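request received
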Amino acid sequence: MTNLSLFAGPPPNAGAERFADHTRRLGHRPAGNRTLIDTLDRSGLVGRGGASFPVGIKWRSVHSRSRGGAVVIANGAEGEPLSRKDQTLMTLRPHLVIDGALLAADAVSASRVLLYVGEAHAAAVAAMSRALAERSTVDTSRATLLTAPPSYVAGEETAAVHFVNTGVATPTATPPRPFERGVDGRPTLVQNVETLAHAALIARFGDEWFHSLGLNHATGTILLTVSGAVAKPGVIEVASGSTVDEVLVMAGGVRGKARAVLLGGYFGGWISAQQAGTMVLDPKGLRAAGGSLGCGVVSVLDEVADPLDVSARIMQHLANESAAQCGPCFFGLRSLAAATTRLARRQPEHGDLPQLHRWAAMVRGRGACRHPDGAVAFLQSALTLFEPEFAAAAGARGRRAS
Amino acid sequence: MNNSILWYTTRGAGAVSLILFSAVVVLGVLSSLRFETTSWPRFLTTGLHRNLSLMALVFLALHIVTAVVDPFTHLGWLAAVVPFSSYYRTFWLGLGVIAVELLIAIAVTSLVRGVIGHAAWRAIHLLAYASWPIAVVHSFGTGTDTLSAWMLVIDVVCILAVAGAVVARLLARPPDPLAADRARFRERVSRNLPR
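response:
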C-alpha cells in the first residue's frame, strides 16, 4: 500500500521512468484548460510545498491576470533538510512532474515553464534533465531546467522568482506576490513539484478518482519523508487521512520508544508521540484546523535522544539560513538559537528561558518572508512540549530563571 | 496695505526657510547615518525630517509669494517659475528658482515614493545636496540683510551644521549593520544564469 498513485508503476529500484513507458502506462497528457481548474477545485488538492494553499484558487488567480504571458515555476528546490520527497519524486517520476508543469502552463495560459530543481539533489537534476531531453521540441521550447542554490529560503516563492530575475535566491518583500508580478514582471505560478504531479494525474483520471484515494473524507495521496527512530526511514506515499501510527507501521515501526514526532519539518512543530499517534494526516483538514502538514516530514524522536539538543541544532540551522535582509530575523534567530543551545548544553545564562519566550513573540511577523515565523513556531512547539526539560536546564546551575 | 510689510515678510520668510531647510538637511543626513541615542530614537529623526520639511515649504511659499506680489519689485509669476527670466537681479533670483524647483521634485517624489520605487526616489532625493547650496548662494547674492550681523550668524551656523553632518556621513562606516552578512549570504545563493 505504499505506491498508490504517484509511485504506481515500476518499483523504485527501476530508476526514472522513461517517457515511452510513462506514456504507455498513463496515456498522453490531456488538455489543460479552465475545465481542469474546476476539476482541481473539486479534487480538494492543496499545495504540498508547505503552505497547503488550494491549487484551484492559485491557478485561477494567475489565469485571470495572464493574457498569455504568464510563467510557471515547478518548485523542486527542497531546501528542507529533513525532506526527501520532492527529489525522490523527480528522480523516479520526472515525466509526471513535467506533465503537471505543462498542464499548469496550458491551464493558466503561460508561455514559459521553469523547472527549478535543487542543485544539491544530483539524482533529481540528472533525471529531470534527461526527461526533458526525451520530450518533443514543442515541450522543450517552452520548458527550461534551472538549478536552485542549496539554501533553506531558496525554495520560498519570492526567492525562486528573484533567482530567475536576478540570479540571487533571496526572498523579496510582498506584495506584489508572484501571481501578481513575478518573473519579468509577469504573473507567475510557483507550485511545488509534488502538487504538479498530482495535477497531472487528476487531469487524466478526474476529481472523483482523487477523492477515492483518500481515507476519512480526505482526498488523494501524500508523499511523506519519514525519518528518525523508525526501522525503514525514507519516502512513502500514503492515502490522505491516514494516521501517524499507520504511517509509522509502513515505515517499519518505531525503534525503541517514541517520545515525540516532528511534523512538517523545521517549520513544523513537535507533537507528543501519544497525541501524534491518532492524528489524521490530511493537508486540507489540518490547514482548516489551523495546523499544517508542512512539506510532509514525519520525524520520530525516541526517548534516548535529548529533545533540547535536537531542537537547538534545528534552531542553529534556521538562524544560519537567514538571508540577513531583516534585522529581527537575522539577530532574533541568532539570539534564540544561542540561548536554546546554552540550555541544551545545560550551561544557561541567567534569564535564558524567559528570554526565549519573550524574543519569540517579538520576532514573529517581522520579516519580509515567513522564515522567522516558521522558526519561532518550531521553537514554541519545543518550549511547550519539552517544558520540563527546558525548566530543568534553566535551573541546571542552581539559578532557576524567572 | 503698506508695501514694506510684504518686503519684510519676503526677507523674514527667506531667512526662516534657510534655517528650516538647513535643519531638514542635517536631519536627513543623520537618518542615513542611523544616528540614535537612548533619548533620541531613530523615528524622531525621520519624523522631524518629514515634518520640518513640510513646515519649511510653507515658509518658502510665503517667501516666494510675497516677493512676487510686492508691487515695488513687480517680478511677475514667470520670474518665479522660469530660471533667469527676471529683469531684477537675474542671476541671483534664477538660482533661487532652480533651488525651489529641485525642492519641488524632491517633495513630490517623496509623496509618491511607494509608486516610483526606492531607487528612483533616492536618486531624486540626492538632489537636496544641490538644492541647499544653490539656495544659500542665492541668499548671499540677493539678500537685503546679507551683511547684517544677525544674518551672518544664521549663515555661519547653518553652513557649519550642514557641512559637519555631511563630513560625518562621508567619514562614517557603512551604517547598515547587516551589510556584510547579507553580502555573504547573497554570495552563497548567487549564480550566473543563462538567459
